[in-house]
Amino acid sequence: MMNYIEVRLLTQPQNIPYFEHVLQHHKIQGWIEEDCGDKKGLVFFLPLVDPAQQIINYIHNEIEKCGSTEISLRKIRDEDWEQSWKAYFKPLKIGRFLIKPTWEPLPATSDSSVIVIELDPGMAFGTGDHATTSLCIEFLDEYLKKGDRVLDLGTGSGILSLASLYLGAESIVAVDHDEIALTVAEENLQRLGLLHKATLREQDVLMVNEGSFDIVVGNIFLGEVKKIIETECKPLKEGGFFIGSGITSDQRKKVEEALSQSPFVICAWRTRDIWDAFVVKKVSGKGSAK
Predict the structure, then answer these.
(1) What is the pLDDT of residues 132-174, one digit of tens each?
(2) Has residue 241 been placed in a domain?
(3) Same domain, 141 and 232
(4) Where are the alpha helices (DSSP H) in the chain?
């Protein structure tokens, strides 16, 4: 039997990307972002073993740097952990998609165009409730064509891969550096009968340099987004689309600067809350990477 600790951070909205980067650095894939008035909350769970205290100590040190951040801890017994975690994940409508937890009943609807994705995110990132995920799903719905080949960088729970396949992608390659995330993604693809159309790789997203994909989608971080642009997103074929997210609105200029010296043209850009997502098309004769 393993006990867990629920960690809740309450901070200014501008600090959220930094703390999310800290969580991923410590290979914490799953967290919940909450609106708390003029502040934001981050909630995540840690197994109550030695590394947990090290992570909490590290976060305490980071709080001192950021300021205006509170942390609260709550011990949860093994038998209560699953229910505590599930309380944060409810059916969610994103465009014509309905993201439904496996344990929730299907909400009644008369809309035959609704695409239901039944998801169990486990400890991986990607329930659809984060603005970056929902923005990527919306862009996939707008730009993906039937028969496209899709590369999903930082797949997490596999939610963007699942959305791509439901939209008619011929195949997907899902990449993540985290073994737990890939296990969760594989289980979701298997349960929905889509694993035969997927290839999963445990790999750094910046090390994927081969392929000829129609769409590359990366819900990642600023540094990774910029590097992919600067290296011309090698796995993306000419005429294909790169859908990028995981950046905040105040980081937009840095991405636009990278795009200005790349073979990409901006097709769309959207902001939701403090987060941005964009679509660019790879074209010939338009600039070159440094």
Answers:
(1) 999 999 999 999 999 999 999 999 999 999 999 999 999 999 9
(2) yes
(3) yes
(4) 16-25, 50-66, 78-86, 131-143, 159-166, 179-191, 222-230, 252-260
